[in-house]
Amino acid sequence: MRAERRPSGAQSGPVSAVAPLGTAPAPLEARQRRRARFELSLFWRTFIMLALLLVGSSVAWMQTFRALEYEPRAVLAAQQVASLVNLTRAALVHSDGIARLSLIKELATREGVRIVPREPNDRYTPYRGDAMEERIARELGARLGSGTLVASSVNGERGLWVGFDIDGDAYWLLMDPARLRPVGGETWLIWLATAAALSLVGAAFIARLINQPLKKLSFAASRVRDGDFDASHLDERAVTSEIREVNIGFNRMAAQLAKIEQDRAVMLAGISHDLRTPLARLRLEAEMSVADPDAREHMIADIAQLDAIIDKFLEYARPGQAELRPVSLSEIVEACIYPFKDAADIAIALDIPAGIRVMADEVELARVLSNLIENARRYGKSPETGVARVDIGARVKDDEVHIKVRDHGMGVAPELLDKLTKPFFRGDAARTAATGAGLGLSIVAKTVERMGGRFSLKNSSTGGLAAFIVLHRAA
Questions:
Q1: N or C terminus of the chain with fewer C-beta within 10 Å?
Q2: pLDDT value at position 273?
Q3: In Å, how far are 305, 336, 338 from 366, measured between CA atoms?
């Protein structure tokens, strides 16, 4: 085995050439970038939908109310004005001159109604501002007679002016138009803002009631996923019957999974004693009783293979999260390639800058790299030379360290890449004769995940299979 470290820019020989680490991104990273779009949680989706529904309903109700208000309000206003004009006319007709002056003053003082003579040269503006004013003007004309004048200003003075006759004398009756105006825009805005605020508060409360049980269920499911069955218990006395049934079913499922996990741990704990003890006896008997050296060596190799397969099963089934601490990546890589220093069928080239430290479990990371190197040694040999050329490189990107282990072999069919990390899957028919259990890359993926990292595989653009590991960088 030849392990060489090449500085950046140095020329390398045909065996130890190092492909750039960043020639192709890991497929997992690409998928995560595609998924990194703006997403709303269930609470905010429910809240926004309820808020839009309630605010839209309030706006539609107010518009409908305003549209339906015009007609009855215009008729009522015209009736009030017509009654006031008729009463004023009757009072003035049946009073003498002195009493008439006193009545005019009394109306101006107490009711805010002025009565002035109407001159032929008076300039006035018809009362035709909006739809409601036009409706009031038409209603007054119908109630007081066709000769009635309704104006919004007379000689530049604004107000509600109604022109009428008393015994052939023309008069103007002036009153404040505010009593006839509909509710103003500011009032409507205040009502709308109040309704919107109450709608938003109600929507938030309803969305929280809907979201809270689902949030608890999501948290409990994450606890079950991490193996913490004690923290995954849900309330079985919930008021809502559907939520109560879901919680009861989830608790029963979690209890069953906890029992299965416990049984699995007990079963795995007994594998070492129940299988390795007979294997040890078989090996001893083979060494002592088999006379043929070739047969003895083959039997011992088969027993060693069975023992290695048991190790793989135990390693894959190891539960829990790894205990992370800052470790030197270059030191771990050096330790991993040391067992291959005398191997003639593998050549390793390193491209790892000094001083890179990652958050990992030292033993777990060494096991991951050793598995990848051994996998490249078995399946990444060049057809021409029969030697597996393995490149190991690392780069720092922000708070992450990207590690690449790449061989120069035949690679893998693209449709099989996603299946290589599944337990017991072998990449091609030639691998069925291998001495493994089909768990090597599965163990690597699971171990990297336990350390909070990401693992993916991709065919290199220049040939061979590349494994990508992304770990958190140590401060």
A1: C
A2: 59
A3: 21, 6, 12
